[in-house]
Specification:
5 helices; alpha+beta; DUF5813; single chain; Yope Regulator, Chain: A; elongated; 27% strand
């Protein structure tokens, strides 16, 4: 597909340095979780769908996680992810948010519509980074974590203020 055949929302995603074209939509390359963004043209602008797949707590650890801990962790994550629009520099009203426990993974989906597609990619990126940061903040101490979560924790604990964000 040539640039002229793409919608202006897709062109903005394809020209953004954090996104790369994928088989379906655009993949975000700045986070460790799988993030795909797709767009559809709507009468009032462009609807963006941000799909994020992260490991569940039990899949992120080398240890057994009790069902109560897993359930409480998921419910807390679900509540906190609803605040993603507050992390953006522009006002964003969600069309929909879904946070689904898939067993080994957690599937997060944000949908929002923008009349002007120039800020859409940055909002999508902010949502994905918010999910990653919120995930790390919600890590339960006392478990041995595996990749990619162990890498996130290692990166979070390096620097001047070393220590995890717990």
């Amino acid at each position: 597909m040539t640039d002229a055949e793409r919608s202006s929302a897709d062109r903005n995603l394809s020209h953004h340095n954090a996104f790369e074209q994928a088989d379906t939509g655009y993949r975000l390359s700045t986070v460790v979780f799988d993030v795909t963004v797709t767009t559809t043209e709507q009468p009032d602008g462009f609807q963006y769908t941000v799909d994020i797949v992260a490991p569940s707590l039990s899949a992120a650890t080398a240890d057994d996680v009790g069902q109560t801990v897993q359930t409480d962790w998921f419910e807390t994550l679900e509540r906190r992810l609803a605040d993603a629009p507050n992390a953006t520099r522009t006002s964003v009203e969600l069309d929909e948010i879904q946070v689904t426990d898939q067993g080994e993974t957690v599937s997060i989906q944000y949908r929002f519509t923008r009349p002007d597609p120039t800020v859409g990619p940055d909002i999508c990126k902010t949502f994905a980074e918010y999910v990653e940061g919120t995930y790390v903040e919600g890590i339960v101490p006392g478990y041995e974590y595996v990749s990619p979560v162990s890498n996130l924790l290692s990166n979070a604990s390096q620097g001047e203020n070393s220590g995890t964000p717990l």
